[in-house]
Amino acid sequence: GAVVSQHPSRVICKSGTSVKIECRSLDFQATTMFWYRQFPKQSLMLMATSNEGSKATYEQGVEKDKFLINHASLTLSTLTVTSAHPEDSSFYICSATSQPDTQETQYFGPGTRLLVL
Amino acid sequence: AQTVTQSQPEMSVQEAETVTLSCTYDTSESDYYLFWYKQPPSRQMILVIRQEAYKQQNATENRFSVNFQKAAKSFSLKISDSQLGDAAMYFCAYSSMNRDDKIIFGKGTRLHILP
Question: How much of chain A exceeds pLDDT 70, in percent?
Answer without folding.
Answer: 93
